Amino acid sequence: MTPKSFTCFSVLILCIGLVISSFSLPVVSTAQEIDGVRQSSQGNWTFMVYMSGDSSLSSNVPADLEEMKLVGSGSSLNIIVLVDRSGVFDTKLLRVIPGNTEEILISNVNSTWTTELNLGNPQTLVDFVTWTVGAYQANHYVLDLWGHGRGWGGVCPDKDDYLTTPELAMAMRAIADAGITLDIVSIDACQMGMLEAVYELRHGSRYAIVSEKDVPLSGWPYDDVLSIISNNPGTDVETFGRGMVNAYLDWGLIYSRYSLTLSLINLEQINDVVIALDAYSVEASKMLGYFNREFAEAREDTEEYDGDSEYDLWHLAEKIDQKTNCKRLEQLSDGLFSSLNSCVVYERHWTNNLDEPADNAHGLSIWFPNHTPSVGYLSTSLCQDTGWDEFLTGMAPFFVSPSRTEVSIDVIAQSSDTDSDGLSDLLEFACFVPQNPASGLFELEVYGPNGSIVYSYMSESDGWHNLTYPPDALGRFSAAFYLWNAQDELVNYSFVESGLVREGWSSISGRVISNVGRGLKWTQLSLYESDGSLIGSTTTDYTGNYELKLKAPTDTDGVNLTLSCGLGTQRQNVTLGQLYAENNFNFEIENTHISVLWLTYAAILMNVAALILLVIWFYGNRRGAKKNQDISEDKMF
Hints:
- This protein is of the alpha+beta class.
- It has 4 domains: 45-269, Rossmann fold (3-Layer(aba) Sandwich), CATH 3.40.50; 271-343 and 364-399, no CATH class; 410-500, Immunoglobulins (Immunoglobulin-like, Sandwich); 504-589, Immunoglobulins (Immunoglobulin-like).
- The protein is built from 15 helices and 30 strands.
- It has a 9-stranded mixed sheet with strand order 4-3-2-1-5-8-9-10-12, with helices on both faces. Strands 17-16-20-21 form a 4-stranded antiparallel sheet. Strands 23, 26, 29 and 30 form a 4-stranded mixed sheet that branches.
- Strand 24 (524-528) and strand 25 form a beta hairpin.
- Helix 2 runs parallel beside helix 6, helix 9 (288-301) crosses helix 10 (313-324) and helix 10 (313-324) runs antiparallel to helix 11.
- Mean pLDDT is 89; it is low at 3-42 and 593-597.
């Protein structure tokens, strides 16, 4: 082979190796899956500002109007403001344009309107919204409530009259009844990120933007907020909402003297939060006489905001879980967390070290006073639709006298090895319930490795209760013992989470086939813990079968593992919630896109071969050149 042909052959081998590598190496897709339906990319926006400045905020009105003028209305945006200040006959209806405002005859909205309106009247809000939507029709509508806020107590004061939460609910229902669905209700006011207040907005709007904490006097940076629309009128509603949250926080990081919170709430998911809170409240109320001290301590440790006893809801449930260690409440709080995750679309917070912290803000707060709730609070829809107010009412006396009502019981929970193979395979429980006319019901709940209930038992009998449970799943278990009195109140709770295990070898097996049914050999399968760490891996045999063996809970606790098959773009993953002695998972992968282990091996071998050939060629050329040189020198002599 000549040096030239040898070089071409080596380069050809290297190119083939690189081509194979391109198929065998993992490829990261840039595509993103987006939940929900995208909004139309075309359309206009109407931004309505209900500017209730007939209060101590009157002097702040001009600055925010100036910010709006920096953007102004245009071909794709109308900014309409109903503003009232602390003077007399100074209510105005304005269309904000770049650098100026155009005043609109106020009687156009309602022939009875004068230049001194009460913005604390819900009908004023309804009239303003319905007229504006009719006069400035658009694809998207934002209603901005501007003014003071006091959480569940109301918003937008006009002198001494507030839009109370029931009045806010009335106004939103009337807007909905008029056939109007607002895209966003933004509340530029303090403490309006309370579940009690946000729940009232569920009729007539798709989203809300609210703050759990106080809002600085300067409020939203309206020029930055409105520029999101003016720069891109085709932006969808959720993107605008996220942008509004970011604009406020980005502004605050530079200019605010206070800690900040702001969240975008999906009002179409708010009912699920309320349903979850109701279930939680009902169960917590039954445990008041027993866990009252823990409830009070959890409240004390929860992040509280500027108003009266306003606490982050998520953080409160977390603290109650930590203090009580009650599995039943923990199960219900998981449901609450799940609903909050769906409802709070986007949230940001920032702690200014000169102010109270906002590190544990999750988007929605709730009222938890140390006294009996007022009549005004009981009139909110949240109290009408949940048992939260009953929990607050029942808890109030325990802030004064936190004594616990308790009936002692003896419990035993342990694992045993019934077949003497050195591995625990049976859970044994025993509980002695004393004869007591006050006791009503004994319950046992056994929780599997993934936290779900796998066994339950209840009895109204006293004396010894001896129970056994042979688990199917491998891993660590826990058990909760409950004793209820005749009034369905908790009088004893015991929780055992050590020494309860089902040990054993677990086989994870199956077959990997192509889309035409042929077994795929040398396909890699890897098993990962929930934190992403690798437990073990294997490859398929010539028929596409595989088996991976491990011991639980020695090698792994066996909870929420990920079994991954393949090496490239056709990688498939399955989640193993729990491990059993036998686990079977089959995979089917497209032949045309398969990226299996043998391709990687082939690529590596061909690349190595190409490098070796190049090295041989290089040294061969050097020796040939030296030999030619020696011959030339000999001829010279």
